[in-house]
Amino acid sequence: MPTRLLRDAFVLCLGEADQLYDRGYVLIEDDRIAAVGAMTDLPSNRSYDEVIDCGGALVMPGLVNAHTHTPMTLFRGQAEGVSLLGLEGWYNTIRTLELVMTSEMIPASVEIACAEMIRTGTTTFADQYFFMDQIIPVVARSGLRAALAYGIVELGDPVARERELTRLDAFLEEVGEHPSGRLQGWVGPHAFFVDNSLELMERERTFAEKYTTGMHIHISTTGEEDAYCRKHFGMTAVAKMDAMGMMNQPIMAGHAITIPPEDWPLLAQRPFTAILCASAGVRAGVGIAPAVGMRAAGINLAIGTDNVCNNNDYDLFLEMRMVAKLASLRENRPGALKAREVLAMATAGGAKALGLGDQIGDLTPGKKADLIILDREEIGWGPTPGYDPYSALVYSVNGLHVTDVLVDGNWLLRQRRWTTLDYKAARTQQAKDIIDLLVLRQKAIDQSQ
After folding, report:
1. Rounded CA gap, 398 and 334, in Å?
2. Cα–Cα dist 84/93, whole Å
3. Which of 131, 195, 229, 339 could anchor a disulfide with 390, C-beta 3.0 to 4.6 Å?
4. In which domain, by residue range, is 378 found?
5. CATH code, 376
């Protein structure tokens, strides 16, 4: 069993013990953490296959980006000044591109997304999109851990409904048999009640039950679902979903900005995670989720970047900062969310959402060796000793402080260089893809006139 020793590091374990080692080590055996401790306790009579002297760099668990749409790096900059969190804005911008894009345009954009996440410290992500046959090979090659959800948009079209459910079934079969062991298959309804009908929702639930998985959705970005459900059913969207049995399966709910407080106690009792995408909400001008209130109610919270049309970057450190600052603004008091609480959302909260709480999210012996190393010689750390490392990670540094990334004990980034992906080649290909895409959209527009 190969061994790798990270020595002389500032080790931030997180987890229940929440241990900190000013001069510590992490021992990795195969794909798991074998031991964590102080350098003074490191056995002196043992040899290792690889020894990395961290020179005081910070070692911590990798981050979990709980809401992404990786192919949409292709659309970055194509929806400036438009809110994508409402049906009209999304349909008239991004959807017009999605309707003409081809499968050949997907791999390069997914590779860019994975490369950006790796470079900025994400080791696990949750994706929701279509063209999964093109996404799976790239994600597998990247080495990242991922929960991939086949995104379904129906808009009341029965033909689209049957087509997408057939594709969903095939996808869940394929990803469930993937040899990497790092990939999960989820059901990905784009938005309940908004573009997924009741009939489709019922059938999506049965697929989640059949494959023992969950549903990755968008919810409560502008209140459209609640307005519809109150009008037609006399109850909130969450109450209607619960009455339909939808809430019995794990649900990752992107944005969760306008969920009524009356629904919070119910959500706290269900396998439900509200995914905070603060940058997307602010940039779209629709608001921010009531993170403090939902957390106090007992709802599991995670953090996601959303797509890079709403957000424009995959840096989860910057997203943590946005979540923390906007919580204080919303509550009108400083420190409404402690830095340590926000860091937990970006690690353990995401792990719990994906059903991986016993595998990732902290540096506990026996868990997967998914961790990142940050350069403490870079700007932003503040004077030490005495400076709170949690505050530094949330408020001071960013993903470009990350120098190394491991997943399953394998290097995905080594000394700031990707080991599994060719970012430059992907950028070159994407530049060709966007030209072809815009030409196809213009042809579609011309034909419709």
Report:
1. 21
2. 8
3. 339
4. 3-61+360-418
5. 2.30.40.10
